Amino acid sequence: MIEFKNVSFAYEKDRCVLSGVSFKIEKGESVGLIGANGAGKSTVMKLLLGLIRGEGGIYADGLEVKKDNLPEIRRKLGFVLQDSDNQMFMPTVCEDMMFGPLNYGLPRTEAEKRVDGVLERLGLTELKHRHNHRISGGEKRMAAIATVLAMEPEAVLMDEPTSALDPFNRRLVIKTVKELSQTKLITSHDLDMIMDTCSRVILLSGGRIAADGPSERILTDRALLEANRMELPLSLQKR
User: Which CATH number fits the domain that encloses residue 6?
Assistant: First the structure.
């Protein structure tokens, strides 16, 4: 579903953010992308969405990420931003969820049916006509996920989906993410959430892949994590 082939990127000539990064994510996989601040996680997401361009090959469902393919690629990839305020820009949750499908040519009646189906599946029907500026941070995060799912993407990209959430809403987001059938690529510093939702982890460090393998193996390797400026998940630190 997603492939990086020897990808490098630098914001400035003397500041290389990614260097020779290669990996594949198969359809249906749930992959956590972890690393300390500045490791290159957000850059990977931006490159995949075509927001920036680097060297090497990047592919989404067999399509090369380049200008001519971006409209089709962005239909396939749904992106949940870390800050929901930057994603929810229409007056109500329903209008936000319908915006994408309507712009892709779906009739209004069909778009609303899709919205109703997603909201019911997520247990969020009460949010349909709520104004975005009158819902809580947790509700807005869930509404942002619903907005992406209304597009029916083949893969879901998430940037720090549990950041700044209280324990109840964090658990709700984790439950929702676990139930998604789409391919998932999730960046997060919440390693407990990654362990709960992802079967595989890619660890970035200094713009390179320091480790790539089963979540249980990588997230329990104290020496590996500490060597790359990270710590064990909180649930394991208590043992």
Answer: 3.40.50.300
Distance CA 218, CA 67 (A): 36
Angstrom CA distances, 201 to 146, 184, 198, 209, stand at 25, 11, 7, 10
Contact in structure between 112 and 98 (CB atoms under 8 Å): yes
User: Is 89 strand, coil or helix?
Assistant: coil
State CA 1 to chain mean position distance.
14
Cβ-Cβ contacts under 8 Å for 102 (sequence gap 6 or more): 108, 111
How far, in Å, CA of 83 to CA of 86, rounded?
Answer: 6
Question: Is 205 in a helix, a strand, or coil?
Answer: strand
Classified as helix, coil or strand, 128 is coil
- Please state the domain count of the chain: 1
Phi, psi of 78 (to 5 degrees): -100, 130
Range of the domain at 133: 2-237
pLDDT tens by residue, the chain, 239 residues: 999 999 999 988 778 899 999 999 999 999 999 999 989 999 999 999 999 999 999 999 999 999 999 999 999 999 998 887 778 889 999 999 999 999 989 999 999 999 999 999 888 999 999 998 888 888 888 999 999 999 999 999 999 999 888 898 899 889 999 999 999 999 999 999 999 999 999 999 999 999 999 999 999 999 999 999 999 998 888 65
